[in-house]
Amino acid sequence: MNPAAGSVIVVSDREDYVQWLISALDREREVVIADEDAVERILMLVDASSASVLFVQLGGGETHSHATLIEGLLAVKPGLAIVAISTSDESGLLLSAMRAGARDFLRVGSDPRDVLSLVHHLEEKTPREAQPPAVQNKVFSFLSSRPYEGVTTLAVHAALEMLDRVEADEQVLLLDLGMPPADTLLTLDLKSSYSFLDAIRSVRRFDQTLIRTAFTRHESGLTVLSLPEDIKGMEGVTAADVMILLNVLRSYFSRMVVHLGGVNPTDFVRLILSKSDRTMLVVEQSVPSCKSGRQLLDHLASHDYLVESIGLIVDRYSAEVGLNADDIAELLGMTLVHTLPPSGMVRLKALNAGRSIFDIAPSDPYARGVRALVDKLSESSGSWKRETAAGPIWRRWLDRLF
After folding, report:
1. What is the DSSP letter of 42?
2. What CA–CA distances, in Å, run from 401 to 46, 174, 232, 338?
3. How far apart are CA 234 and CA 215, in angstroms?
4. At residue 368, does pLDDT exceed 50?
5. What is the pLDDT of residues 268-309, one digit of tens each?
């Protein structure tokens, strides 16, 4: 998934319609599949994806209800460009689409060039709604290929440091979607009865009262939302669910830190990465960690994610180890953003006490390292730009990796 691609929404229960559209747009647009054909739900998706073009299926037994859906969407957002799609181009369907307010009609299976050309045309001709002043909110994701406490510790401390820097009326959210589930709660000695799954189910009634009363709050003021410990219920979560929830959360929190340690690079994860302003891959200074990191990057690249946009953090870094940070960056083809020291005893003490390193050892090199990292994240924008720096040892490590 290309984070820079624009989005279109398709409302259809036909897999062949959806696959034809994905193939026709050929990576130039992210195709968001509506999981419900309700006006309110689709409008939430429009806001979450910033899509201005919608494809709505007509034909079969859904013609009347979907024509009514088009009318309902345009009643709320007249500027939407809606295209009716069907395998048939009979005059009755064309008339239904026109009466409902669709801008155009496409037959499924038509020339892909016509589809992309129509999307470009509609985007150029569709007036953009006036947007409110942009809120300077940011989403930062910390990703690792293997579950380990280092990325959990980093996500917790990055969120705490960001909280210390925002204005008094701003909020920071630590969104824990890593494995094992809810490790950040253990790290901060917290318990929670409200999870990420609960948030998805209650997204329609979000407000400050719900956030204040249901979300878990650390004594520092940091808000934490994690996966449930039993993740069986997550099987029914759709990409649309995640997109809508992230958009809603972003409207309430000026900073969001997402913990994605040890996760599989599923559609769910790739969607979150595509919505992040900054993504950092965290690896340790070892051949196995680098190898699994390389495999994760390759998987993302094979699904059209721009891995060049991901920055590299080397954790538990020691200059005395043969594989230095520049070597690792060269091995992985990434930009080295930061290194963090081992600080093993301090980390262990903090984890067992359920307290932050900022509290128990504020001058420790790890605490200073996290502050320096947040400085870099606050100053940077756009994609990471890799500097090529080949150390004399890196090729021998490359041979071991592959």
Report:
1. H
2. 43, 33, 35, 22
3. 18
4. yes
5. 899 899 889 999 999 999 999 999 999 999 999 998 888 999
Average pLDDT over residues 6-11: 90
Q: In angstroms, rounded to a whole number, what is the distance separating the alpha carbons of residues 331 and 341?
A: 20
**Of 10, 11, 6, 39, residue with least CA distance to 128:** 6
Please choose, from the candidates 15, 21, 33, the residue with its C-alpha nearest in 3D space to the C-alpha of residue 116.
21
Taking the model in full, what pTM does it have? 0.84
Q: What is the DSSP string of 180-194?
A: STTHHHHHTT---S-
pLDDT the model gives residue 91: 79
Range 143-164 average pLDDT:
96
Count of C-beta atoms within a 10 Å radius of residue 363 = 8
CB hemisphere CA count around 399 (13 angstroms): 3
Q: What pLDDT score was predicted for residue 98?
A: 87
E strands in 177-270: 216-217, 223-226, 255-261
Q: Which residues contact 81 (CB under 8 A, 6 or more apart)?
A: 52, 53, 54, 103, 122, 123, 125, 126
**Neighbouring C-beta atoms of residue 202, cutoff 10 Å:** 13
Q: Which amino acid is at 383?
A: S
Find residue 280's DSSP bridge partners.
Answer: 142, 311
Tokens representing 16 are 């062949």
Assess contact for 2 and 8: CB atoms under 8 A.
no
**Nearest-CA neighbor of 256 among 223, 227, 233?**
223
Closest CA to 381 of 311, 330, 313: 311
Q: Which residues pair with 261 in a beta bridge?
A: 144
**Please, are residues 227 and 234 in contact by the beta-carbon 8 Å criterion?**
yes
